[in-house]
Amino acid sequence: MTSPNPAAKPARAKRFDGEKIVLALAAPVLAVLLSVVICSVLLATSGKNPFDAWNVMITYATKSDGQVAILNRSTTYYLAAAAAAFGFRMNLFNIGVEGQYKVAALFTAYIGSQLDLPSFIQIPLLLITAMLVGGLYASIAGLLKVFRGVSEVISTIMLNAIAVAIVGLLLVPGIFAPEKKGASNAIQTAPVSESSHFFAINTDGGPLYGFLFIAILVGVAFQFTLTRTRFGFDLRATGRSETAATASGVNVKRMIVISMVVSGALAGLIGLPELLQNSYNYGQSFQAGLGFLGISVALLGRNSPIGMAFAAVLFAFLDATGAQLPLQGGFPFEIVPVMQGTIVICVVVAYELVRRYGLKRQQQKVGAELAAQAAAAAEKKEVSA
Amino acid sequence: MRSTRTPGPRPVPPPFSLLALQRNDAPPDHQEIAITASDPAPTTGGNPSAGTATPAVELRGITKRFPGVVANHDINLTVRTGTVHALMGENGAGKSTLMKILYGMQKPDEGTIAINGEQCEFNTPGEAIARGIGMVHQHFMLADNLTVWENVVLGGEHLYGIGGKAKAKIKEISDQYGLGVRPDALVEDLGVADRQRVEILKVLYRGAKILILDEPTAVLVPQEVDALFDNLRELKSEGVTVIFISHKLHEVLSVADAISVIRRGTTVGDADPKSVTARQLAELMVGAELPSPESRESTVTTDEMLRVEGLRIAKTDAEGIERVVLDDISLRIHKGEILGIAGVEGNGQAELVEAVMGMLPLDGGTVTLDGKDLSGTLTRARREAGIGYIPEDRHRHGLLLEAPLWENRILGHVTERPNSKGVLLDPAAARKDTQRIVEEYDVRTPGIEVTAASLSGGNQQKLIIGREMSHEPKLLIAAHPTRGVDVGAQAQIWEHIRVAQRAGLAVLLISADLDELIGLSDTIRVIYRGRLVADADPATVTAEDLGTAMTGAAQGHIESEPEAVAEAQALAAEGTEAQSAAPTDTAPTDTADDQQAGE
Questions:
Q1: Contact B446 A366 (CB under 8 A)
Q2: B21-132+207-286: which CATH architecture?
Q3: pLDDT (average), residues A56-84
Q4: Across the interface, do B438 and A249 touch by the CB < 8 Å criterion?
Q5: Which end of chain B is more exposed for a tag (fewer CB within 10 A), N or C?
Q6: What is the CATH number of domain B326-392+457-558?
Q7: Per residue in B474-507, is it b (16+ CB within 10 Å) or e — as a string?
Q8: Which chain B residues have a beta carbon less than 8 Å from that of A17?
Q9: Are A227 and B451 a contacting pair at CB < 8 A?
């Protein structure tokens, strides 16, 4: 048999890759542009000058306090995104990040307020507590799915509601909150001990959370686990095709539980920047909605560590600078959630379109190249015959 | 139903096939031999009862390009009214694309379609149906939980309503064409052949006078094939035109009135089934010499490799009734032995494979590989113990379609070298080894970074086989290893299996292709309703007798009449065996000689 099978030329591989990058960038860029247009139209119809609004946001982002605020927020968003993305990579929709981080933050705040060990023990202990609580809470959904076939989407949504109830049950004076004293109505845990405070970098724009480094570490570990370990391969294989993974020897049930736990453990970290660097306690005013925001960021960043970093910064930019809108010129802050929403909707649609287009295009390219090879081979054959 | 006969103003079409073989673009190589071998056959072709001058279907110059690939190129096809016209060609030759064009699922880039002499353009299947064209797909599209009647009426409510009138019409069609369909039967209670008849009836109900059957015999046992052919003859005598897609030579020869062969996207010739031989047809189809799964010297040893003992799997369905999927399956495969499992699909083959692979929990029994009890272990441990697996459905079980080839090379062997070291992957080594597989197994691809989805079926399969063979398996489970694979790749796949067999590999072969089973296996067991009911020696059994056993009619050891075996082998040799000379010169009658001529 004549084998028209030359070794792949590296140039060709590169060309495929270059196109891949363009395709990957096209979707989010288009989505962002489209949402800017939509929001501009919205602002214009509400009688505001959209350009002034964008100007307010961009101006704030050029200032150092704005930049620090953006980075601090992105730290939290990135952790939230990583938690959601870990499940997504194996088609496990952990919608329960929200509940997991709340429960984890509550327990961590309580333990942080009760213990006062040296920092080098206290802080790792709190990190581990947060991850353990988050992981355990998420494991409920994993076990339900494995042993009872309960969709993780349903169970995690339910667990979110239960998490609110747990917090309400425990965060009462005498249990996790100190006995009421003074005039304040707010119920919160006692402040965490001094040794629990995570380090911050002082900049012109205010303190930059040291948790940024934890987030970077999570991103690196995420990427390494997924692309360089057997576990990561199994996880991605399961995400791409559960049937093929099963046939290849992946214990899918075990993978579901593990991934759910890891996802929950990452979720446990979400509340910590706020807890250990800003509020120092867990109370009713503790920021909610981070879990859902994380899902959006993960979608926008396509579950890839680098992509999610950009997405987290973008969302943090919108949130941090959007807060300036009502203060400077009376623009409605609501324009920011609208923008985030349209970005996510556009990007989800665009990614799917790009994915299909890319797959089809590659098939055509391969077909064309093989046809060319076959034609060349046939000619040769005929000559020799 | 509008009039099917339009006494067209067209001139009488050119005389059909004066030569038995009429080539459009045959390259001037060995094929001339085939023409001369079959030459003196000056019949006017096919069925004398087909009296109309206007062909039912006339395709002229059909060209369909998919970007980068020409699927159909200048195809000409003339199908006369009231005939069974076979369209032959190997997988990927362009038959399906052509039929999709005729059925309105795709639009040709060039060329014309004329139905009963009228030029047509179809944008949707609906327009084709309105013209009286109907298609029966290879995979049935019936709702199991509905009755035959409901299935037929579904989507065609506007024709005869959904009540008594529709039922009467169904009965009428069934009687008219001798289909023997019971309108009130539940589809889930029907066998494959009955379901096929329902599909045909569905199409006729919608007024089809031109029937396209896409590989209708692929799912049938020989006896059912005969029954189907009787139905086709009945349809023909009632004036229905049948276009019959197949690549099974003997079937085509026995039922078709005319044959058109497609190769590499273009029609390479028409043949008259009365005078053409299977061998000539086969050569037309592939345009080259043919491979065959001939038996060869036995490599079977006495060392036991796989021992399956009393395997039992029972599933409890929604109604709480226990359905026994596998019952008391015991088998042994020795080193160097290929054990073939014959059976109509759905009789437990898939479950047997999954049980041995550890993908299904057992309710009883043991699986022992090379003296090691694997009964309680998981799939990964079994793979590591030396089981290679070529799955039946490679898209679902064998590949990550959207992952690059080198990641697919890791799939299933992630714990083994060269794919990983410890818990870490070794992408560089995996890539290098993928390159080696691509070269050694002749996987046609521009590189190893392309996704598996962009390869053709045959090349995907070669990649899978290369991957499984690269870990020196002790046992290879090959489920339909050449399904949906073109003839060239098929030969390579058989050869790879044989080479490994000679080196002591034990193979569990599941195949629906009885010729493949008989040709490759050392021993054949027949599975029926989850039980191994019969066994046979491939050297002394015919496909027909095997087919009988597959329907549960025969048990124990089956052995065919020696004359029948000889005849079948001669026929097979004529059809697919390359080395034997043209049958007109030296008709191979001696079985023993024939077998040795295989390699």
A1: yes
A2: 3-Layer(aba) Sandwich (3.40)
A3: 91
A4: no
A5: N
A6: 3.40.50.300
A7: bbbbbbbbbbbbbbbbbbbbbebbbebbeebbbb
A8: 449
A9: no
